[in-house]
Design brief:
This protein is of the alpha/beta class. It has a domain of 71 residues: Ribosomal Protein L15, Chain: K, domain 2. The chain is 15% helix and 13% strand. The strands form two sheets. A three-stranded parallel sheet has the order 1-3-5. A three-stranded parallel sheet has the order 2-4-6. The radius of gyration is 37 Å and the shape is rod-shaped.
Length: 154
């Protein structure tokens, strides 16, 4: 055996596919990439999982899969009865007075009074909604809980 007679085993060496070297090679024209499109272009032609070519993906179209924001939800400004102790006894507490006292941030949201804490003075409280416990606490102190239709200002 001579060095120039050494050959690799049959089938152990495979020629690489030379694409784009003419139609006669069998891999010319589109070079095995199909016709036009993103996958036929040079460079990184991979897209992230779930990408649908710019169309809104299915995962975003199904509310139960990604969370849901109810556009009709009413966001209330929350005030606890314990915060109402800053007002004078038997005074009328309106959303405007709550705003001036810093209990709520805006008059654009309706106000709901909740029953956390303890009320020590009788008050006439006007708000959009009251929890049952808050209403009971205000009335137990000799005050009144009045629901106003829409306390918001545009």
């Amino acid at each position: 055996m001579k060095q120039n007679e050494i050959r690799p085993s049959e089938g152990s060496k495979k020629h690489s596919k030379r694409v784009g070297r003419g139609d006669a090679s069998g891999h010319g024209s589109f070079s095995g990439r199909g016709c036009k499109g993103q996958k036929a272009r040079a460079g990184n032609n991979k897209v992230r999982p779930g990408f649908e070519g710019g169309q809104t993906p299915l995962i975003k179209r199904l509310p139960e899969k990604r969370g849901f924001v109810n556009p009709f939800r009413i966001e209330y400004g929350i005030v606890n009865v314990s915060q109402l102790n800053i007002f004078a006894e038997n005074s009328e507490v309106t959303p405007q007075k709550m705003l001036e006292a810093g209990l709520i941030k805006s008059l654009k949201q309706p106000v709901k009074v909740l029953g956390q804490g303890e009320l020590k003075i009788p008050l006439v409280v006007k708000a959009s909604k009251f929890s049952s416990r808050a209403r009971a606490m205000i009335e137990d102190q000799g005050g009144k809980a009045e629901e106003v239709g829409d306390a918001t200002v545009d």
